[in-house]
Design goal:
With 285 residues, the protein is α+β, with helices and mostly antiparallel strands. The chain is built from 10 helices and 10 strands. It has a single domain, classed as 3-Layer(aba) Sandwich (Beta-lactamase), CATH 3.40.710. A hairpin with a 4-residue loop joins strand 1 and strand 2. The two termini are 28 Å apart. The N terminus is likely disordered.
């Protein structure tokens, strides 16, 4: 499907103005990209800037893994041996917390941990299975997705502050990737789409971001990204990208990225939830 990224009416400019007013006094760089109204409406604020993705990069990693499953190079039930050496300390890892001495786990379960719980060790296990970060970039380029850079894994990102900025994306590129995923633009089979969609809907991280102010029960398939705050009180990234399903069944594709913020953590998350609520109200009024 070819998309026409042209505003369907001038009224969406009012929505853009409202969102800009939400972020103009924030001590952060905020990027927003939205595609809605059956692909007729687009809204971009700082949409072509480079933002550190942090764990948002686990979404394209999951796409690449499932693409290999569709090619029958992998099997979701394929078991992977995980040793204690694979479970690095000092990194977010529910797998390590549950299996500190290692375990054997299927690719399906590792993918679930990596996306729904944002497990960093699970992420790097999948990257090694795929052959490294260059494989993900090649996969994206094969699907005409540009402006996403994936150079380092989670282990590398924990070594030095500046390294995390090597994994960057523009908000527009991430929203484009979400549309390709949702419309099944030759990226995944129906079975693989359903598998990943369920995981993203059941994601447990970032409940105060895109989902934060939406009506209870709203379907949101999303992936978050979160950085540390350094000794200068700079938070490199608080991110959430996803697909919000409106009451009429139509999707809203949204990438909301907050970078280099001097705001408090709750404020960074509220920036995203405020944006999502404005968009929700606009399309449900």
């Amino acid at each position: 499907m070819a998309f026409s990224y042209v505003n369907s009416n001038a009224q969406i400019d009012d929505l853009k103005i409202e969102i800009e007013s939400l972020i103009k006094n924030k001590k952060a760089t905020v990027g927003v990209s939205v595609i809605a109204n059956n692909f007729k409406d687009t809204l971009n604020i700082n949409g072509n800037l480079h933002y550190p993705m942090l764990s948002v990069f686990k979404f394209p990693i999951a796409l690449a893994v499932l693409s290999e499953v569709d090619k029958e190079n992998f099997n979701l039930n394929q078991k992977i041996s995980i040793s204690s050496k694979d479970l690095l300390p000092d990194t977010w890892s529910p797998i390590r917390e549950k299996f500190p001495y290692g375990t054997t786990m299927t690719i399906a379960d590792i993918t679930k941990y990596t996306v729904a719980q944002s497990d960093n060790n699970g992420c790097d296990i999948l990257l090694r299975l795929l052959g490294g970060t260059a494989t993900i970039e090649t996969f994206l380029l094969q699907h005409q997705v540009t402006d996403i850079s994936i150079k380092v894994n989670e282990e590398d990102m924990h070594k030095e502050w500046d390294i995390q900025y090597q994994n960057w994306a523009t908000p527009i590129a991430l929203t484009n990737l979400l549309t390709k995923f949702y419309t099944n633009d030759k990226i995944l089979s129906k079975e693989s789409f359903d598998f990943l969609w369920k995981i993203m809907v059941e994601t447990t991280t970032g409940t105060d971001r895109l989902k934060g102010q939406l009506p209870k029960g709203t379907i949101v398939a999303h992936k978050t990204g979160t950085s540390f705050t350094n000794d200068k009180n700079i938070t490199a990234a608080i991110n959430d990208i996803g697909i919000i399903i409106l009451p009429n069944g139509n999707p809203i594709f949204i990438s909301a990225l907050v970078s280099n913020s001097e705001e408090e953590g709750k404020t960074n998350e509220k920036i995203i939830s405020d944006i999502a609520k404005k968009i929700w109200d606009y399309y449900t009024k």
